[in-house]
Automatic annotation (TrEMBL):
Pfam families: ABC_tran. It comes from the Bacteria. InterPro entries: AAA+_ATPase, ABC_transporter-like_ATP-bd, ABC_transporter-like_CS, ABC_transporter_ATP-bind, P-loop_NTPase. GO terms for molecular function: ATP binding; ATP hydrolysis activity. It comes from Paractinoplanes abujensis. Residues 7-229 form the ABC transporter domain. The keyword Cell membrane does not apply. Keywords: ATP-binding, Nucleotide-binding, Transport. This is Taurine transport system ATP-binding protein.
Length: 252
C-alpha cells in the first residue's frame, strides 16, 4: 500500500452465512479522492462501506485504511442515511459530544466553527427536533467532520430528503469535503457524477466492480448548474447509467 493510498481492499469477499454479498473486490483509493459507489439495491455498496469503517471484517481478503486495519468509530467520520442525532441534546451539544469523543477541544468556539462549515452558525442552541430534516443532516455531517482524520464515509446521506434540499447539500458537501478522502454510497447516477472524482459501479449480488470511471470534471470555479450543463457531464452520466442498467437487466 502506497503512503498516498487512503484505502486498499485486496481480494475482499464478504458472506452472510452461505450468501456472498460482496466480492471478490480489489480497490485502491488514493488520498484526497472522492469515490462514489453506485449500483442497484442489494449490490453490496453499504457492506463495502461497513468493511472500510471496520464495523465488519471481510470473510476473505484484507481491508486497510492508512495502511492499517480499520478501527470501528475511530478511523473515519461517518454519515448515515438517517442523522442519528441525540434528541435530548441541542444541536451544539451533539457536535460537542463528537468533539469530546474524538479527544478534541469542545469549546463553544470549536462547535460554532464546525456548524459554520455546514451553514448552521445560528442554530447551536436549538433542539434537534426544532430544525428541518436537511438541517439535521447538516448536523450529522458537522459531527462527522469533528473526527480529526482525513477519511469521511457517507452511506446514502441524502436519500430521504426532498430534491431541492438534496441538491443544496450536494453542493455543500463538495465544499466541506475538499480536504478529505471520501467514500459515498448512492443509488443516484446524477449524484454520483456530480459529487465524485471517481465512480465505481457494482454488479448485483455478489457486488463486484463493473465499471471504474474517473470523473474528469472541474470541481472549483463553476456553479452546479453550469457543471450539470456541460456536455462532458451528460456523457459521463450516460456512461454510468448504462453500466447500472445493463448489470441490473442481466439478472432481471
Amino acid at each position: 500500500m502506497s503512503s498516498a493510498d487512503a484505502i486498499k481492499l485486496a481480494d475482499v469477499e464478504h458472506r452472510y452465512g452461505d450468501v456472498t454479498a460482496v466480492g471478490p473486490v480489489d480497490l485502491t483509493v488514493p488520498s484526497g479522492e472522492f469515490l462514489v459507489l453506485v449500483g442497484a439495491s442489494g449490490c453490496g455498496k453499504s457492506t463495502l462501506l461497513r468493511l472500510i469503517a471496520g464495523f465488519e471484517e471481510p470473510t476473505f481478503g484484507t481491508v486497510r485504511t492508512a495502511g492499517a486495519p480499520p478501527v470501528p468509530g475511530r478511523g473515519a467520520g461517518l454519515v448515515f442515511q438517517q442523522p442519528r442525532l441525540f434528541p435530548w441534546r441541542s444541536v451544539g451539544g451533539n457536535v460537542a459530544l463528537a468533539l469530546r469523543y474524538a479527544g478534541q477541544s469542545a469549546s463553544a468556539a470549536d462547535v460554532d466553527l464546525l456548524l459554520e462549515r455546514v451553514g448552521l452558525h445560528d442554530v447551536a442552541r436549538r433542539r434537534t427536533w426544532q430544525i428541518s430534516g436537511g438541517q439535521q443532516q447538516r448536523v450529522a455531517i458537522a459531527r462527522a467532520l469533528a473526527v480529526d482524520n482525513p477519511l469521511l464515509l457517507l452511506d446514502e446521506p441524502f436519500a430521504a430528503l426532498d430534491a431541492l434540499t438534496r441538491e443544496k447539500l450536494q453542493e455543500d458537501l463538495r465544499t466541506v469535503s475538499a480536504t478529505r478522502t471520501c467514500v459515498f454510497v448512492t443509488h443516484s447516477v446524477d449524484e454520483a457524477v456530480f459529487l465524485g472524482s471517481r465512480v465505481v459501479v457494482l454488479t448485483p449480488r455478489p457486488g463486484r466492480i463493473a465499471l471504474d470511471l474517473p470523473i474528469d470534471l472541474p470541481r472549483t470555479g463553476i456553479t452546479p448548474d453550469e457543471l450539470r450543463g456541460l456536455p462532458e457531464f451528460a456523457a459521463l452520466r450516460a456512461e454510468v447509467g448504462a453500466a447500472v442498467r445493463s448489470r441490473t437487466e442481466v439478472t432481471a
